[in-house]
Write a structure and sequence with these properties.
two-stranded antiparallel sheet; alpha+beta; 7 strands; single chain; globular; Alpha-Beta Plaits; five-stranded antiparallel sheet; 86 residues; 22% helix
Length: 86
């Protein structure tokens, strides 16, 4: 089952290559996108083909600090939201 990570709190200037480097150690990544929402809010979307890889990434990255700011990570699948800590 495919899964999507939503990562909030990325530092300004963070790009798709940075996001891929951050998430690829947890498994194969289908797609990454960085969205700059203005006013310093940057978030990332990461698609994994494997739900377990996405859960592992979310568990490790949620609360991980970049530029002294903790990341907030959630996982969703095609069947709805999934807790990374189940």
């Amino acid at each position: 089952m495919t899964a999507r990570l939503k990562i909030e709190g990325l530092p300004r200037g963070f790009d798709e290559d940075d996001l891929l480097d951050l998430c690829e150690p947890y498994g194969f990544v289908d797609d990454v996108r960085v969205i700059d929402e203005g006013a310093g809010a940057v978030r990332g979307i990461v698609d994994y083909p494997d739900l377990d890889d996405a859960k592992s990434a979310a568990e490790d990255l949620d609360g991980y600090e970049l530029d002294d700011q903790p990341l907030r990570v959630t996982v969703s699948s095609r069947k709805g939201s999934v807790s990374a800590f189940e």
